[in-house]
Amino acid sequence: MRQRILALGAAAALGASLLLGGCSLFGGAESGSTATAETAAPTPEPTPAGEPVPNPLTGLADADYTNRRPVAVTLRTLEGAAPHWGLSAADVVVEGVSEGTTAGMMALYATPDVISKVGPVGPGRDLMLQLALPLNAVPVHIDKNIYAKNLLNTLAYQDLDGYHIGKAAFAFDQDRQNAGYREENCWYTTGEMIVNGLSNYGVTLEGENAPLFLFGERPAVEENARNGTTLTIAFSPDDSEQLVYAADTGLYAKTNADGSPTIDADNGQQIAFTNVFVLYASSGIKDDGYTRQYDMTGGTGLYLTGGAWEPIHWTKEDATGPLQLTDAAGEPLVVNPGKSFIAIWGGYYGQGLTLTGADGAEQTLPEKPALLESGISDEAAAAAQAEFDAQQRIVDAQEAYTDAMAQLPDAETALTDAQTALDADSENADLIAARDAAQAKVDELNQIIADSTAILAEAGIDPAATPAPEGDAAAAESTAE
């Protein structure tokens, strides 16, 4: 009986072994007679390497920009700031009036590796941040106004501000100051200093980036179709710039208001761009009564490349929303790969825009943008400007009169002395020249006095009737008592 049970157990074990595909009941070695060939595991496909990311600001495949954030450096532009360092290395240059009458400037770099020196670094402005933040760029500046500060604080967005971090990320060019530049126009930074400065906040330049435009090769512009070769942008009567197309380079070279080339102080090169954009934006005045307010949600504009231009439309959802461009047909605008210049233009009183083609013909441009509710109409601005000019003319005339009257006695004495010397030696050529120069100076001063008197008389002011200083009047009253 026991043998039969063992036999049945052996049979059951064999059946189980067959059902399990020849595996040992105890997980041991396979039985040679019952094991099946082990199925080979499939060889995993190698993970394909990611395609190199082209420069997000130019569209050029000149390096791999994967996981690299751009930097956006604000530059000073007031009197005495030019020439700037680092402009020729910038991928994009942005200009627009934020305060006063001079356009502010921001230089965008896809990587700090190309920044050997950039400056003079200026204060941050929210207008420029509108184009930098959608790119995940790190804003670099020295100080910032309340509007830029509020925007960055609201978004919890880390910038690099020299007002706080100081010489950990910025340096002073003593040679520039020794050459006569004001102190504020001597501060600069470098790519290495930017990286080191950010490390103080535990921030790196590793991170996502986004393409500024839809880049792609466009058809070449025929020579007889070059209708946009010279663009003149007047940001104000005191700040006018030109971008002039050169057929031999295919670039728009930038010039200053006086016609001189806009050069990079670091290498002496004139800056030039493949693409030029003018973004029309309705404008007004912020609640401080001074800073410009722009509607940055969209508008019309111009796109110039290859010596030709076309009207465009642009939109932007909010401060961090990307810039979207479409052509006249409403299709996404394809932009030539290369460096770009972007002007934010409000078209308010004192601003102007002129574009001519290779044949010298002036182009008909889109209507200037409407003013915001806080804007000042051209008529009101013209009246205010006329009133200001009239008052300034009176002030200038009074100063000129006072200065000329102060110089006249000495000039007349010099003339008398020169004439006396000449009377003693009437044939002396040097004495004749000295007498003539002295006479010319007296005549010049008398003419200034006459012209100033006429201006003041027209305003009902007697320049000779100057009131006694308050201190003298008080002293006189005290003596009388």
TrEMBL record:
Pfam families named among the record's database cross-references: DUF3048, DUF3048_C
Top-level taxon of the source organism: Bacteria
Region of interest (Disordered), residue spans: 34-62, 461-481
Signal peptide: 1-29
Keywords noted in UniProt: Signal
DUF3048 domain span: 57-196, 232-342
Protein name (record): DUF3048 C-terminal domain-containing protein
UniProt feature, compositional bias: Pro residues: 43-55
Entry-linked PROSITE patterns: PROKAR_LIPOPROTEIN
Organism, scientific name: Candidatus Gemmiger excrementavium
Compositional bias per record (Low complexity), positions renumbered to this chain: 462-481
Gene3D superfamilies: YerB-like
